[in-house]
Design a protein that fits this description.
The complex is a heterotetramer. Chain A is built from 7 helices and 5 strands. Chain A is an alpha+beta fold. Chain A is elongated. Residues 154-240 of chain A have low confidence and may be disordered. By secondary structure, chain C is an all-alpha fold. Chain C has one domain (9-328). Classes of the chains: A alpha+beta, B mainly alpha, C mainly alpha, D alpha/beta. Chains A and B meet through α1, α2 and α3 of A and α4, α7 and α8 of B.
């Protein structure tokens, strides 16, 4: 008897299974017809890396502080820089991102203090030749033109605008060091620090004040020197 | 190779005692299942010695996906390692991030804010559901039913959307960082997440009607690949596969990390120790994960979950073997720090590494179709094995 | 009678057969597209949408063209003759079955008096070709696939034939047209008169066409693609088309034997071919539905199932049919 | 603390051959002489008081001039103990007995230690490459003094 019962319950369950799939037959598909329809990328989406520029002046926000290059876990960022003799500010002469090894981890964006580099929701950068995936500064700047962003703190841009010295926007190299910004390194023996100043958009308004705070704290921090940014920084580093 | 020949020789001797085999001159043959095979889940090569359809011996050959992550990590500063952890185990990379963060935190005695711990639990459990959904689909697909795979992926996409909205990526999140998480959740995340968990519970019922009572599915899974508890423990099998072997062992409960002590959930255990139990353990675990997420969302404290490390900090001297319950089992990270910016030694323990070892043991004498079912039931993910 | 011209039977048969062939090839293309659509919608996707604008209707045409252009790869160690003839035989055998498919009261290539026997004989060729493909490819997966198909046929062919016997018993004829003509009323359809026979036939027929849950010879997850691992280009296309044509054939036979063939639901003879195609498509849809719902059986489970369940059921059906038939007479 | 008890009991039992190391309160560790390793693991597995039956991981560490070390991360399923067993090895001729007999799951971990660190696992029947290519001839890559081969690209130092 058990066998017969098993048989009928087996058939019943097979039919029930058919109904589950049959139910889906009438449903509307959940996929998108890709080239025609596109998914709207969320704001935080980490797609291709771009360089942002100041919407007013059109100049790159980058101050060639090399922080992103140092933060990059794969060594995909290569920066060459020069000092503007008039303003004594650094500016990038070469900014290359090798998208063949870029991991889209977002560490460069997090390390940047000047809204200069950002991972955007852009995608679709397939090419036939691998070498085309190595983006130079012009390409990166071009990609970043239409990217909206909330300026976190832009003292550099402001100052540059005031001083009307467009080519070198950005701070002095020394200033950059502090912006990675540990508040009180001395207090914690294990040298691990929070940095609330790095908070994102929500604190944008308060940002100017904070930058000032950091600037005032600058000299002591520079002595700490465990940021990984040492004097070699003054040398031009060709990266890889 | 000589060993294999020896092996075949042995069986030929046995065959000579078998009159049918002697008369027909049957012979065992070798089949290379993989490295490129639909159901080895990545590039795993199983060298099968087969007697017709029956498996005589299985020898796994791994390393096709070896990326030397341990070596790479020795040359990276601590902050740079999380992206590699994502790639160490890309099916549940949230949990891989977590084990690394946990290890560094335990060595550096870093306090994690309560909100970050709650978020970790939420995202870890979402990740567990996402991984089990893939498991569910792939398991059914390896038994020949393709449709469940698509259903599983459909639900997984919803989790991916939640992840993408929060951390910007769908697969390699880089979200759980040392000391916290990378970003706070967006407003409205809780509602979306709750909506998802209640939807998930409904969908699981659909899943169960589709497969759980299906006689074909039952005949393919019941009493196939029985792994008794002693054997599983001896081979270091972990996670749902170990629990399916009737062992009450869940690192979330037995060696708690994060805030798992605060949540209530059941640990399913198997009774027959077979493929079916391993499947069922994961399906039940999805429900339990939903429960945990709901509890965590209800108790989510206010505060700031992020914690920014100095660009290259020095971890104090020490060593620790951290382990968490990943979706596949015990995922371990062992770091030896010598007070430098970079780890002196970083060893990763993937749960699939041990889980794969037991497969040759329990699949002897079964059919090739059963091997596929067993392989799928252990949820082997090759990047975790090869590292 | 063909288009008002009196023609000798042999020419008429040839014309019908050629027509059938053309229709069937088109049908196969359609079925491939349809299968993709059905699977897609079951899986909450769209399936092909681009080629040919309207729901990707010409996707299979494009695929066939692509396959035609592909390089014909023959493994060096293959048994060349066997390897070459396998797809030809499977395609030929499938086409041959159409000789006795009764599309409408008059539209049948040859109303053989042993029609159903002929079909049972001819469909077996498919398995031979699968075995040939498995052996000829000189690939272990292919060999296992071929062997599985050979092992499988012994199990399901017996209940299949026995389930058909019940119908033959009722119609008292082996000719397809006679069997269809016998089911002149809706309540006379054989699915009503012997549902058990229909069930057994449907299951065995699914095994016959090697479709999930019985697609053991080409079990994708175990044997990669089974017997056709090594085939590419047009040879692969022939296997592929033959599979779909075969699916239609078993559906057509099911229609003729159990679903009243070309009879309309109200016992009407008009538009017979339409009813026939519609009913066959319904059966094809059920086969597709099976495929996208169920997992695959294990090879020994199939045999166990066929011998332990299908065969007794088929016998039971035959016995009951015989008893009742004699009582009613 | 459960773990401290465990260690003190073990030290008591094995005396001078098992030496306690202070690492982390949550993770007791013992240094065991390699000559008694197998016996030690066997006893703690079978002893009713310990039941340390689960091997999580084996990690080899190369300390350059301080020799090498094998770390056996063990735990007890039933009693929830955690224990790290360390074995100090001579760097010139690193050798350690296999523990496959006690923990079959150690098989691949030991093979890995052999192929990446060159630690000779005495008694292991199957010492062949696991993760590396079969024709690997460039030494023991995870040793700290490994110079790399031609394919090896170092991360730029900043």
């Amino acid at each position: 008897m058990g066998m017969v019962k098993d048989f009928f319950s087996g058939i019943y369950n097979l039919v029930v299974g058919l109904f589950v799939t049959g139910k889906h037959l009438g449903r509307h598909a959940i996929t998108l017809q890709y080239p025609k329809e596109r998914w709207e990328m969320p704001e935080r989406s980490r797609g291709v890396v771009v360089l942002l520029s100041d919407p007013e002046t059109g100049e790159l926000n980058c101050t060639a502080c090399l922080l992103c290059m140092k933060a990059c876990p794969t060594g995909a960022i290569i920066i060459d820089r020069e000092k503007n003799p008039e303003t004594k500010r650094w500016f990038p002469t070469k900014f290359v991102i090798d998208n063949t090894i870029c991991a889209f981890c977002g560490l460069c964006e997090e390390s940047c203090n000047f809204d200069a580099i950002k991972l955007t929701g852009k995608y679709e950068f397939s090419v036939f030749d691998q070498s085309e995936l190595i983006y130079d500064m012009d390409r990166l700047a071009e990609l970043g033109r239409d990217v909206k962003y909330t300026p976190r703190k832009k003292p550099a841009a402001k100052k540059a605008a005031e001083q009307k010295k467009p080519p070198a926007e950005g701070k002095k190299p020394d200033e950059k060091k502090e912006d990675t910004a540990e508040k009180k390194p001395e207090e914690k023996p294990d040298k691990i620090e929070t940095n609330p100043a790095e908070k994102k958009e929500e604190k944008a308004e308060a940002s100017d004040k904070k930058t000032e705070d950091q600037e005032s704290r600058k000299p002591e921090e520079a002595k700490q020197g465990d940021l990984g940014l040492d004097k070699e920084e003054d040398k031009k580093e060709s990266g890889n | 190779m000589d060993e294999k020949e020896l092996h075949i020789g042995e069986h030929q001797e046995q065959d000579e005692q078998n009159p049918v085999a002697r008369e027909l001159h049957t012979e065992e043959f070798l089949v290379n299942m993989g490295p490129q095979h639909p159901s080895t889940h990545g590039v795993c090569r199983l060298l099968l010695t087969m007697d017709g359809e029956v498996i005589v011996k299985v020898e796994p050959y791994i390393g096709y996906l070896h990326r030397a992550i341990e070596k790479i990590c020795e040359n990276r500063i601590y902050n740079q390692i999380t992206p590699f952890m994502d790639r160490f185990e890309y099916v549940s990379s949230m949990l891989a991030d977590w084990v690394y963060a946990l290890c560094v935190e335990r060595i550096g005695q870093i306090e994690v804010s309560p909100r970050a711990e709650y978020l970790r639990v939420i995202f870890g459990e979402l990740q567990r559901i996402a991984s089990h959904l893939i498991y569910w689909g792939v398991f059914a697909m390896d038994l020949g039913a393709v449709t469940p795979f698509l259903y599983g992926l459909r639900e997984r996409e919803m989790i991916m959307d939640l992840f993408e909205e929060t951390c910007g990526q769908r697969l390699t999140y880089n979200y759980i960082r040392i000391g916290g998480v990378s970003q706070d959740i967006n407003p409205g995340f809780e509602q979306k997440c709750k909506k998802f968990t209640s939807y998930m519970c409904q969908v699981l019922e659909d899943y169960e009607t589709l497969l759980n009572e299906n006689p074909i599915f039952l005949s393919r899974t019941k009493n196939i690949g029985v792994a008794p508890p002693e054997l599983s423990v001896a081979y270091g099998v972990s996670g749902p596969s170990l629990r399916a072997s009737g062992v009450n062992w869940d690192i979330r409960k037995d060696d708690p990390y994060g805030y798992y002590e605060k949540f209530e959930f059941e640990i399913p255990q198997g009774k027959n120790y077979d493929t079916w139990d391993r499947y069922q353990a994961r399906v039940i675990e999805m429900r339990e994960s939903c429960k945990i997420i709901e509890q965590a969302l209800d108790g989510l404290p206010e505060g700031d979950p992020t914690f920014k490390m100095r660009a290259s900090f020095k971890l104090p001297e020490g060593e620790y073997y951290a382990r968490i319950e990943s979706s596949r089992g015990e995922m371990g990270c062992y770091i030896v720090s010598k007070g430098e910016k970079k780890p002196y030694r970083l060893k990763l323990r993937g749960s699939s590494f041990n889980n794969l070892m037991i497969i040759p043991e329990i699949s002897k004498g079964l059919k090739i179709a059963d091997l596929v079912a067993i392989f799928a039931s252990y949820d082997i993910i090759m990047p975790e094995v090869d590292r | 009678m063909f288009l008002g011209i009196e023609l000798p039977q042999i020419v008429l048969s040839a014309i019908y057969f050629a027509l059938t062939l053309g229709v069937v090839l088109l049908m196969a293309l359609f079925l491939v597209w349809w299968e993709r659509k059905v699977s897609a919608h079951i899986q909450v996707r769209f399936g092909p949408m681009m080629t040919g604008k309207w729901h990707g209707w010409s996707q299979t045409l494009a695929d066939a063209l692509k396959l035609l252009q592909k390089e014909d790869i023959v493994p060096r160690a293959a048994d060349k003759g066997v390897y070459f003839w396998a797809p030809v035989i499977v395609f030929g055998a499938t086409m041959m079955t159409f000789v006795v498919i009764p599309w409408s009261p008059r539209f049948i290539a040859a109303d053989l008096n042993v029609g159903i026997l002929y079909i049972i004989a001819i469909t077996t060729f498919t398995i031979i070709s699968l075995l040939m493909a498995g052996w000829g490819s000189n690939n272990k997966y292919s060999l296992l696939g071929g062997m599985r198909s050979a092992a499988q046929i012994v199990s399901y062919e017996v209940p299949l034939t026995l389930s058909i016997m019940g119908v033959v018993l009722l119609a008292q004829s082996l000719s397809m047209q006679d069997i269809v003509a016998d089911q002149n009323k809706f309540w006379n359809w054989n699915i009503i008169r012997q549902p058990l026979g229909f069930l057994v036939y449907l299951v065995a027929a699914t095994a016959e066409v090697n479709r999930t849950p019985f697609d053991l010879p080409e079990a994708e997850q175990e044997l990669v693609a089974g017997f056709n691992v090594e085939y590419s280009g047009m040879k692969f296309a022939m296997f592929f088309l033959a599979e779909f044509v075969n699916m239609f054939v078993v559906a057509a036979i099911a229609t003729a034997l159990f679903l009243g063939g070309w009879w309309g639901p109200f016992g009407n003879e008009s538009l017979g071919w339409l009813w026939f195609v519609l009913k066959s498509m319904g059966v094809v849809f059920v086969l597709m539905w099976f495929r996208w719902t169920y997992p695959r059986l294990r090879v020994d489970h199939l045999m166990e199932f066929a011998w332990k369940w299908l065969l007794p059921l088929a016998f039971l059906n035959l016995l009951a049919t015989g008893l009742i038939y004699n009582l009613v007479k | 603390m459960q773990n401290e008890q465990l260690v003190s009991q073990l030290v008591e039992k094995f005396g001078a051959q098992a030496e306690k190391v202070e690492l982390n309160p949550a993770q007791p560790a013992l240094v065991v002489d390699k000559s008694i390793l197998v016996e030690f693991l066997k006893q703690i597995k079978e002893d009713e008081n310990f039941k340390i039956d689960y091997l999580s991981c084996i990690s080899a560490v190369d300390y350059l001039e301080n020799g090498m070390e094998m770390n056996y991360h063990l735990c007890s399923i039933e009693l929830r103990y955690k224990l790290t067993v360390k074995v100090k090895l001579d760097r010139e001729k690193p050798e350690v007995p296999t523990i496959r007999e006690i923990h079959p799951g150690a098989d691949w971990h030991e093979r890995e230690a052999w192929e990446l660190f060159g630690i000779d696992i005495k008694g292991h029947p199957n010492l062949k490459t696991l993760l590396l290519p079969e024709d690997w001839k460039d030494g023991w890559p995870m040793r700290r003094d490994w110079e790399g081969n031609d394919d090896f690209v170092k991360m730029p130092e900043f």
